[in-house]
Amino acid sequence: MFADSAKIFIKSGKGGDGHVSFRRELYVPNGGPDGGDGGRGGDVIFQVDKGKNTLVDFRHVRKYIARDGEQGGKKRCHGADAEDLIVKVPEGTVIKDFESGKVIADMSGDNQREVILRGGKGGLGNMHFATSTMQVPKYAQPGQPGAELFVQLELKVIADVGLVGFPNVGKSTLLSVVSNAKPEIANYHFTTLNPHLGVVDLGDGAGFVMADIPGLIEGASEGVGLGHAFLKHIERTKVLVHVVDGASVEGRDPLEDIRTINKELEAYNPELLKRPQVIAANKMDAVYSEDDSNEILDALRAEFEPKGIKVFAISAVSRQGVKEMLYHINDLLKTVDDAPVVFEKEFEIEYQGDRNLPYTVSKEEEGLYVVEGPRIEKMLGYTNLDSEKGFDFFQKFLKNTGILKELEEAGIKEGDTVRIYGLEFDYYK
Question: Among residues 3, 298, 44, which one has the least CA distance to residue 151?
């Protein structure tokens, strides 16, 4: 069974409580406090497992709860830290907050291991609270609570090239003859339910990963059928190959099919239409002509080649025209950014202790304001300000934490400069 999404509950461990105790020694009637600190609660850590290619395990186990830290002991004994809980997922898994749908982490590229929920800190024992006026403190600090969250896991396949098209146009057959993939192939009028990946080897070190994206239908971008489940797999691909029935064996109109799919792609994510496209007019072995041309092929070339989209007449069964198309796709891949498509973090997990992290807003000189503090440093550590989404997240952080309000109360005006740890921004409402 293939599974490409799952909803699960995760919870980090609570910190162990600090201990209250006093020394009991012979000839020492009033021994001082010696209660030890509690141990740290376990983190919830997601880690990529190269051997996994499905989220099916999460259909059976839906709760992942880390252990609590051990409480402190007498004689200044520190409670043991809890073991971290490691959750293994396939590469390409995107972890989202279930309520908002915002990205917490994308387990792709260099991000092979990430702490999603930190365990609570252990509480301090009563030995820390002795003062000259309070020599026998009878209280200790409780451990910080763990954090809990419902998250949505989504597996988005990692492929350079995505084959798109309506059911029964030959995508699975094409993938099977050009790569090492072994998809099930049959003449069904409904779509393959899971994407297949294959490595296309062109020799001399050249090649790429190709995915057969499950067939799309009109209305997919609105969630009709399994539309959203299919469309999300296209988001990481760099080149899209429209596979159409060039011989119109079943009476489909290939031009209308391509227009329909591009319309669905645009409705789902307009950025997808900016990626290079290729058209594979398949089943041309069913057309008996000397130059492999027909009305459909001529119409495809007339409409799309002026837009820079090359049309190839191929037959996945006889492999006619396939090699030329693969080399063209390989050339297109050289023109696009070869960095993996990784989804930016959009969601900040709030911890009870984080809300108390201090920050300061001060006026350095006329027209220059400085913001600094541990909470700001923490946020900058996981936010990519070079990306549009990252900067948008940064602006919301400043607003939601009240920093913008404090800047306004300090007298900031439009055009003034805000400096945050070496970064400078102009302030505009």
Answer: 44
Residue 61 is assigned to a ligand binding site: no
190 is in an annotated binding site: yes
32 is in an annotated binding site: no
339 is in an annotated binding site: no
CATH number listed for the domain at residues 1-155: 2.70.210.12
Instruction: Report domain 357-426's class.
Output: alpha beta
Residue 165 annotated in ligand binding: yes
The encoded tokens of residue 240 equal 């899209």
Say yes or no to pLDDT of 196 above 50. Answer: yes
For the chain, where do the domains classified as CATH 3.30.300.350 start and end? 357-426
Report strand pairing: 368-372 vs 417-420. parallel
The amino acid that residue 396 corresponds to is: K
Contact 94, 48 (CB under 8 A): no
Torsion of CA 394, 395, 399, 404, to 10 degrees: 110
Mean confidence (pLDDT) of the chain:
80
pLDDT value at 310 more than 50: yes
Task: Report the predicted TM-score, pTM, of the whole model to 2 decimal places.
Answer: 0.63
Q: Binding site annotation covers 162?
A: no
Q: Is 285 labelled as part of a ligand binding site?
A: yes
The stretch 20-46 carries a mean pLDDT of 83
Residues in the chain: 429
What is the CATH code of the structural domain delimited by 161-333?
3.40.50.300
pLDDT, residue 242, reads 92
- The string of pLDDT tens digits covering residues 375-408 is 677 777 767 777 777 777 788 888 877 888 888 8
Q: Was 170 annotated as part of a binding site? A: yes
- Every domain range in the chain assigned CATH 3.40.50.300: 161-333
**168 a known binding residue?**
yes
Q: Is 192 annotated as a binding residue?
A: yes
Q: 93-151, pLDDT tens digit by residue?
A: 999 999 888 889 989 888 899 999 999 989 888 888 777 666 777 778 888 889 999 99
Task: Please give the Cα distance from 6 to 44 (Å, whole number).
Answer: 17
